[in-house]
Automatic annotation (TrEMBL), chain A:
This is Arginine transport ATP-binding protein ArtM. Residues 8-232 form the ABC transporter domain. One of its GO terms (cellular component) is plasma membrane. The keyword Transferase does not apply. It comes from the Bacteria. The keyword Cell inner membrane does not apply. Keywords: ATP-binding, Nucleotide-binding. The gene is artM. One of its GO terms (molecular function) is transmembrane transporter activity.
UniProtKB/TrEMBL annotation, chain B:
It is a multi-pass membrane protein. Its main location: membrane. It is found in: Cell membrane. One of its GO terms (cellular component) is plasma membrane. SUPFAM superfamilies: MetI-like. Belongs to the binding-protein-dependent transport system permease family. This is Sulfate transport system permease protein CysW.
Length: 238, 234
């Protein structure tokens, strides 16, 4: 077993696109356990921060240094996108795909995929095509596909943005189990209730800048910046 | 109206009496176009996929050129292939002019840009869909290519079928390089042109219906084999 990808050093990270700063001088320290919730209004840079940490963005400044080389780091991370990416394959092959990329035999990969589908309660849908799934089922499939590689760190970009209450609750339960099993979670969300339910610590972004990073309890009870106070009151923050 | 009716009657008559000439002509049509589609697919599908996945200088130019070549006038292609293969042309020594091989060459030139262009479009769309996932999973270039070709196989099949559709109905080029010689290079489309010229509309229409029937039948057959259009699949 290789060592952990934590600690990570995130210093002065800047990402610009078409002259506009999407992330502006973000420095952050992340604990190796728990659930971090990234909050902020639309366009604050939540998705960009997640993608930058995952190594999917070109940085225009600063650096992100994991404790393992990039090739190892990326394999130990997984990413669930806001809109689940459906491969044109049966559900079970969608879930098995990351393992087959790693050279696991297809029989073994499918067996593991079957177990994961049971865990996310998609067992009966294993041989349907991914496009036949409902919105919530699609996101659960994407979650199973992300978790099958037993990542040390899981990113989720507003995974419940278009889901109803039940689907959201199921996903949250799965995330809590995964976290209890040792998967570090960093998740962007809009949903204040969800943030309160899941967060160990909160990163609050606005206009590409990091305004607050605090313990969940501290953040929700006494936010220090006026923007975060307004955001928590449900006001429109610009 | 009577001509169409007579044409239908002629078509049915030709088919039920196992008219030897008709079967010969129809089989030659299929032979020429299917062979051309196979060659075009072998060239065009990888070419289109490559253009969708690789970034290189002048890629846009190549893609634009490819799209423009889709509109190649068959008659002009026929003329150029004719000049290439004629006795005094660069490939005259092979003696290919007025043979089915010459017709296949002309059709490959006509069909390949179409196949490559549709394949390019399909794979590019799929790549846009899969991009984040494949990057996130750290798939190697080879793995990405294999995944996209496999998951895009039905779209690639459509590209080949479009090529078949263009080839089977094409008359200008194969008329010039084949010469419409009875029992040698006569195919359905050139025969129809000939019969129409002679004023035998019933036979021309009969051949026309056989041509349409063949085109539809081949498409349905391929879809049946590949399982496209089956509920819930791609």
């Amino acid at each position: 077993m290789v060592g952990s990808i934590f600690p990570v050093e995130i210093a002065d990270v800047t990402v610009r696109k078409r002259g506009q700063a999407l992330l502006d001088g973000i420095s952050l320290s992340l604990a190796p356990q728990g659930i971090t919730i990234v909050m902020g209004p639309n366009g604050a840079g939540k998705s960009t921060l997640l993608k930058a940490l995952h190594g999917m963005e070109r940085l225009n400044g600063g650096h992100i240094q994991w404790s393992q080389p990039k090739s190892v780091t990326q394999k130990r991370q997984a990413f669930v996108f806001q809109t689940p990416i459906l491969m044109r394959r049966p559900v079970i092959d969608n879930v098995a795909y990351p393992l087959t990329l790693r050279g696991v035999s297809s029989a073994e990969a499918r067996e593991k995929a079957r177990q994961w589908l049971e865990r996310v309660k998609l067992g009966p849908a294993a041989h349907q095509h991914a496009a036949e799934l409902s919105g919530g089922e699609r996101q659960k499939m994407a979650l199973a596909r992300a978790l099958i590689g037993e990542p040390e760190l899981l990113f989720l970009d507003e995974p419940c943005a278009n889901l109803d209450g039940r689907a959201t609750r199921e996903i949250e339960e799965l995330l809590l189990v995964a976290n209890a099993d040792g998967t570090r979670i960093i998740m962007a969300t809009h949903d204040m209730g969800q943030a309160r339910r899941l967060a160990d610590d909160v990163v609050f972004l606005n206009k590409a800048k990091l305004l607050e990073h605090a313990d969940a309890q501290a953040f929700f009870e006494s936010p220090t910046t006026p923007q975060a106070q307004a955001f928590l009151k449900g006001e429109i923050v610009e | 109206m009577t001509e169409i009716f007579e044409g239908l009657k002629a078509a049915i008559w030709l088919i039920v009496t196992f008219d030897a000439d008709l079967y010969e002509i129809a089989l030659r049509s299929l032979y020429v176009t299917i062979t051309a589609v196979i060659f075009s697919s072998v060239i065009g599908l990888p070419l289109g996929s490559y253009l969708a996945l690789r970034r290189f200088r002048r890629r846009r130019l190549v893609v634009a050129l490819l799209n423009a070549l889709m509109g190649l006038p068959p008659v002009v292609v026929g003329l150029i292939v004719y000049l290439m293969l004629s006795r005094s042309g660069p490939f005259g020594v092979f003696g290919l002019l007025f043979t089915p091989t010459a017709m296949i060459i002309a059709q490959v030139v006509i069909i390949t840009p179409l196949v490559a262009s549709i394949a390019h479009q399909a794979i590019r769309e799929l790549w846009a869909e899969y991009h984040d996932l494949l990057i996130s999973l750290n798939a190697t270039r080879g793995q990405r290519m294999r995944t996209l070709l496999w998951d895009g196989r039905r779209a690639l099949l459509t590209a080949s079928l479009a090529g078949f559709g263009r080839g089977i109905g094409e008359v200008g080029a194969i008329m010039i390089v084949g010469g419409n010689i009875d029992h040698v290079t006569r195919v359905l489309t050139t025969a129809i042109a000939l019969e129409t010229g002679k004023g035998d509309f019933a036979l021309a229409l009969g051949l026309g219906f056989v041509l349409i029937f063949l085109a539809v039948a081949i498409n349905l057959l391929i879809h049946r084999i590949s399982g496209t259009e089956v509920h819930g699949r791609w």
